[in-house]
């Protein structure tokens, strides 16, 4: 199940927010070693605190969250304009009401009741939900920064970005790309998700890649 969270729900749905922020700390700081701000075992940044992000979360029937991502309009403050700006030699000027930035794409650490191929399933569910949400709300494109190791994952999931630029070598093997929002892409994602949910056997290679890189930064 997918849910949308906004800051005005913080007090009424504190458990979901805390679980999401704790998972981000576990994945981005503890597993991937990113330099992120963690307080009380929760990873938050200034965009969570001072902007008005929209969060998309995947949730099990038990209430446990399995994945999350964050959306910000490119007409306001974004990581691409600030933290990520120095990653690329050429300026990346992406600002449009029809384009939103996706960051903090996170497949949460597995729980005891997680099935073996849940990481790929959760990543597909999040991207499918993101595509549907964008289609329903008039968002035409999604921009994000991603590791080169995710290129194959996005291809298998069925929604590949168009790369705009590659980071300088000393930064790492990162790209900034655009995901086009179309009805065809949404249908492909939904079909791929349905096939994954119907599977009994895991897909280990994709699971390792998705868990190891955390998706869009």
TrEMBL record:
- Which Gene Ontology molecular-function terms are recorded? N-acyl homoserine lactone synthase activity
> What's an example Gene Ontology biological process for this entry?
quorum sensing
Recorded catalytic reaction(s): these are: a fatty acyl-[ACP] + S-adenosyl-L-methionine = an N-acyl-L-homoserine lactone + S-methyl-5'-thioadenosine + holo-[ACP] + H(+)
Q: Does the keyword S-adenosyl-L-methionine apply?
A: yes
Q: Which InterPro entries does the entry link to?
A: Acyl_CoA_acyltransferase, Autoind_synth_CS, Autoind_synthase
Q: Which PROSITE patterns match?
A: AUTOINDUCER_SYNTH_1, AUTOINDUCER_SYNTH_2
This entry's Enzyme Commission designation comes to: 2.3.1.184
Q: Which UniProt keywords apply?
A: Autoinducer synthesis, Quorum sensing, S-adenosyl-L-methionine, Transferase
| Broadest EC class assigned to this enzyme | transferase
| Assigned protein family | Belongs to the autoinducer synthase family.
Q: Which PANTHER family match?
A: ACYL-HOMOSERINE-LACTONE SYNTHASE (PTHR39322), ISOVALERYL-HOMOSERINE LACTONE SYNTHASE (PTHR39322:SF1)
Name of the protein in question = Acyl-homoserine-lactone synthase
